[in-house]
Amino acid sequence: VRSADRLAGHLMSTRKNESARPYRELDINITDDTTLALRFCAAPASANARVTNELIHVIMAPAPGQHLDVAAWRRALAIYEETFAIGPTVPRHVVVHELGDRPPHVHVVYASVDPATGRAIRTSFSKTRDEAVARQIEHSQGFSLTPSVRAEFVARQLRQIGKLDTARAVERTTRAVPGRRDQKSRVLQAERVGSDRDRIDEEVALLWRTAGRDLGRFAHLIQGTDYKPARGRRAIMLVHLPTGDSWALGRQLKRIDR
Length: 258
Known about the structure:
alpha+beta, four-stranded antiparallel β-sheet, three-stranded antiparallel β-sheet, 10 helices, 7 strands, about 40% helix, elongated
């Protein structure tokens, strides 16, 4: 119960969000009071001595520009529940968070034990499987698929479970560059402003190597070019002046040096 109450307090906090509210249309077999709902979800685990986690907590956050209505959220949840064999008797409580212009994201909480059967739900961590779920959700909504360095393995996983259309879509998606690890918001920003990240990497790499990998000389060399450093909230950013695209300079230089 203590872990349920702590999570409920976190989900309903507006310290980092403009609003936090139960998403009643997505709840299953549950009250819309978040504290009571999470206590109810946690209760079945107490009867199974082998279960260490009372709750399953999932965060689903669309990328900028990707707004989902109730029907779309239901499709996304159905994909997740099919993957992890979460049946209709498992209680589900959903809280939606909203902040500024970002698309609302949801926190989904399930009981870790099906109260109808007493069976524990297995959700062991697997990057490939989790990516396969994410790609299915993106494909089902008609969104562009997120590039991945594991695309080959994700496509294979999708073929194994019979999701052939999504597997083919993953195979057609541009592969992510190992070590790049750009967030989807960063990829979408580059697409929106029309910047060519590969060309930018080549130009910055040339400047960095010409400077002998010395930050002081690098700062001097970029004067009068298409690039300008700027102070970000957590890091020094590099701005591409023609397009306004920006990114963390330190991360880019580490990638170049690999």
